[in-house]
Amino acid sequence: MAGIVFNHATVRERADMLAFLDLCAGRGLDCVSIWGNEIDRVGEDRALAALRSHGMTVSGYNRIGPFTPEGLAGAEAELNRAARFGADHVFLFTGGFVDGHTDLPAARRHAEEVTARLLEIARPLGLKLAIEPLHPMLVGDRTVIASLGHANDLCDRLGDGVGVVIDVHHLWWDDRLEAEVMRAGRAGRILGFHVNDWLVPTRHLLTDRGMMGDGVIDLPRMERLVRRAGFSGPVEVEIFSTEWWARDPAEVMDIALDRCARIFGAERAA
After folding, report:
1. Strand ranges (DSSP E) for the chain?
2. Beta strands in 68-115 (DSSP E)
3. 3-state DSSP call for residue 93?
4. Per the domain annotation, does 270 fall within a domain?
5. Does the residue 242 lie in any domain?
6. What is the pTM of this model?
7. Rounded to an integer, what distance in angstroms lies between the CA atom of residue 178 and that of residue 192?
8. Is 40 strand, coil or helix?
9. Which positions of the chain have pLDDT values less than 70?
């Protein structure tokens, strides 16, 4: 059975990184997905010490971007820190349009050029870069990569060291999903599988994701698809939700673990 990883974003409103690591360790989890700004809140030395004390590894490091001069100013330092934390992959966040620009093809070319430059830094560090296509309704302000097909095309052109993360909330609707997941699997580039759910109605595109099983996504089918494509890693719980953020982090994690066990047959140990 698959393991489980929590993305700190799921509980970060009420649990800083040290508390988050304690919560994961107390539930038998030995791998986490972390955020650079949350490391800043507690201090890098304390965060590293806590990880080592718990014997934990890091799957994903969030994140590099947006792809503006300001957003990229500390990119090399972030990549070096991700390497110090032993991250498997680093998420890229392109951002959407800035300064009134509306030229989407140009924005996408810029994202590809920036990713190519970041790869030159990441490869010697042993880091993989993760492209996570987001829902098309977020193109204007959060991403210019809104389909798995586009992400696969970028990976084909950029070569080794870059892969994709499949987040069910962003990709469940795509009529080409099966073909593109299998394409990513054949290339060995699926770096992560993020789980949550799509609520009907959805009150906010960013902060109203559902707990697994509360929405309309066929989650067992999604998992079967990524497994058939060759992905053998853990399911990663990543829920951006003002409703769940307001609840006790321990309760949120326990509910998520129970849902993962029932829906995916996932074990607590990652």
Report:
1. 4-7, 31-35, 57-64, 89-92, 128-131, 162-167, 190-195, 235-237
2. 89-92
3. coil
4. no
5. yes
6. 0.96
7. 16
8. helix
9. 1-2, 267-270
CATH of the domain at 33: 3.20.20.150
63, 133, 61, 67: which is closest to 96 by C-alpha? Answer: 67
Structural domain for 166, as ranges: 4-264
Domain count, the chain: 1
Q: Which two tokens stand for residue 22?
A: 């304690």
Cα gap 5→257, rounded to integer Å: 10
Q: Distance (Å, rounded) from C-alpha 89 to C-alpha 127?
A: 6
Q: How many CB atoms lie within 10 A of CB 103?
A: 10
3-state percent breakdown (helix, strand, coil) of the chain, nearest 5: 45, 15, 40
Where does 85-229 have alpha helices with state H? 104-125, 148-158, 168-171, 177-186, 219-228
In a domain, 46, yes or no: yes
Q: Is residue 269 part of a domain?
A: no
Kindly give the pairing relationship between strand 4-7 and strand 57-64.
Answer: unpaired
Report the alpha-carbon distance of residue 114 to residue 225 in Å, rounded: 31
Given this model, what pLDDT does residue 100 score? 78
DSSP state of 136: G
